[in-house]
Sequence to fold (397 residues):
Amino acid sequence: MTRFWALSAAGFAATAISFGPARMGFGLFVPEFRAAFALSSADIGLISGLGFLGFFIGLLVAQALLARRGPELPVVAGLVVATAGLLAVALAPNAPVLAGGVFLATASAGFAWTPFNDAVHRTVPDWWRPAALSTISSGTSIGVAGAGLAALGMVGLGLSWRMCWALFAGASALALWVNVRALRDLDRAPEAMPRAWRGLVQPVAAPLFGIGFVYGTTSAIYVSFAADRAVAAGGLPGVPVDAVPALIFILYGLCGFSGLMTGRLKARLGLPGLLRALMLAGAGSLALVALAPGHWAGLIPSAGLQGVHVMMTSAVLAFWSERLYPGLPSLSFTAALLAMAAGSVLGPAVAGVMSDMAGPRAMFLVAAALPALLAAGLRDRHAHDRPAPGARAGQGT
Fold:
């Protein structure tokens, strides 16, 4: 039980920081960054895409460090990078330094997830693993909602956005201390993780990677531009316009707790049915922010649907990849996240240019069409959770 509580607390802290303010904070504060650094929509998309490139690189580095040194080094390295990036944003004198800080902060998310899957798998008894992994994953929702509350406090107390980012950096340093203490005696797995990337490239896995790519594309567009879209539309009736981004991210994070229900919904709807529902939720979220960004009936359901879409889809990627490749749970999940990260890099960059050329409404509607078309074209034969041909149950971890 000591290991259960130690890993649960450490993982919760790491994901709360890396997937909360470090990964989502840029989009939350885009209106402030636009004003402070005279950023265009193309600039915003470029900086956001650069951050998600850091996430992509972080995933690869974390997998290599995990195989060679065990969970401690990638997690600690990720939180060091998060602290440095968050502090760089707080102190940024210009847009290039801002971009560098966003790159470092977002890269930390690539380090935080798969090492804890490995640690829990090897050191926590089987009957406690679901509770430990659920606690760790819930850090994401708390981190996003907490970042939104900090931004709301900024508006209420009249604080600078720089003070919020300094607070985020301090919280990251605290999470770093917690993880150093919790992970210091964990070694790597007894057997080196197999280098079997090529074995993951099979036709049966194409839907997994395709959905991961579209999910990454559209969710990154939402995180990067939704708050800015709402502010530009004048905000919500009865709410200070500066408080609207915070409300969006608070609701986004709170609705993300629906991710804990993913397994039950999958049992009821089946994997294809659940995927269709999640893609339609993502499409609806983007369409609402395109069509009704200044109305309660549009913006609030949009944020809630996006939280459901993001947290449940990420949970699906985790168990779907493990079911396809039961002998390679860490490597296959990393591959799914890499597909997501690739979409996250391209999505905001292209969306920023499109927004400047055709306007944010058209950009969001085009983005909404991607998951809608995917849901329409998805057939039951495309999504199953049986092991892929040649997958071996005992092929490493």
